[in-house]
Amino acid sequence: MKRYILFLLAAMLECGIMFSQNNRPLSPMLNIPGEFKQDYKDVKKGTSCILQRVIKLKRPTEQGESKLQAVVVANGIQVGVPVNELGVIALKATDKNSFWQTAQLSNDLISYYEKKGYQEGMRKEQAREADDYMKELEQAKLFYDDAAIEDYLQCMLLSIIPEKMAVMRDGTPLVRVLKSPAPDMLMLGNDCLLVSTGMLTTLDSEEELYAVMSREVAHYVLDHAIITVNKNIARAKRAQFWGAVADGVVAATEEYLYDRYDYYVPGLIFATNDVVQALVNDNIANRMGLDYSEKQEKEADRMAMSFMSLMEKNKEAVISALNKINQYYQRNKDVEVLSKYGAYGSLPERVGKLGKFTPLAEDRNYLKKTSTVVSYEAGMMDYNKKYNESRRLAMKNINNAMACSDDYLMVARSIMKLSNSKESNAECLEYLNKADETSKITNVNICKMKILLLLRENKQADAVNLLHEYQELLNRMYQQPHSQEDSQWIAGEHTWAEKLLDRTYIM
Prior knowledge:
alpha+beta, SH3 type barrels, 6-stranded antiparallel sheet, 3-stranded mixed sheet, 22 helices, 56% helix, 9% strand
């Protein structure tokens, strides 16, 4: 270790000529260790070295010499290696910074920027596009606001993203959680990482989430979005495009304005599948350069696996996560795919090519942290009449001893919506009683469902007693602080109960 430090100090002292003001730096100081893979100029194969930075020579010292040079120190002497010849050095990433820096150098991003420029105008345009997109998401109430979940994801992102790149780019992405059943992650042009609730509930371990996030960081670090935008066809004017998106969201919302939903949760707003489809689709992904090519997706897969190995995590988590995402789409064949992967056509092939893997065991710490998201997602599936999916999600919490009252209630609701037999009704009542035991407050939804079960079994007298109890619960709710929407719901339920009482007395 001491020897390495002395070597580095000596190398730093030798840096004079190539770092002169006559030459333009194309990267910050990097100091990535490496080793020459072959004899190069006066440097022998196997010689250790330090790649310090990349510069552009103002005046090459030799005729025909490349202006783009990597400044490398070997044997205490400064050596210029043309960027297009960097393959002579095996760079050895030792941490997250050097890993992603090496990835950028290996992909020759510096030469790409020298040809294309940093395209600041396009980057600003992409940032504005992302801001417009987030405004639409906000207006459609598609953000899942939970400070604890967001901070958990932000901390994970910070453990992956480099503090310093090999190119003159900076920025620290921030995480927002998107209400969407589809397992997806989107890195927007304004440095916002969108993580869907569907992604959090599809995965079962922190390492799987780390793997998927590493894939998205690979797209971000390698600037795949900007490269893709350069390849995409000319686009309509921004205002025109987002105006059309907004119209689609309004139309999708209006369809559900008068759709009665009998499951009451104060202040909680579920998203409809139509609204999500209007705002998470291939057209939007294409516009923002997020419709990555199959080559870029495969590159992100490989980078994530290598990064996982470097960080001493299970690289098979990448395959495990992608396999679960693939299973989601296989399970929901009738549901339009809502992600940047389009129809997910290449995913089965990609999963197969990544090799065999051992499924990761469930991570109880992860399941605990995401249990509230699972409960929400179960409720959203119920709201969208996806009762089998709602039950599957709720059972995930129940089977892992993470369940809240609403999880038992969701299972009971799915049973009632999909079956009507003596056995299923008895099973439903068991889950309702469990919901009642678990609930910290009096839950009007449990009471209402028990009323419906009694009516199914022709127990009108018991139903009448419970209807009176239900009305009393509604009265208590009305005495508590509540919104105008809550008032409307309470009034509607009172009317329903009164009419049902009249019919029940007649029966």
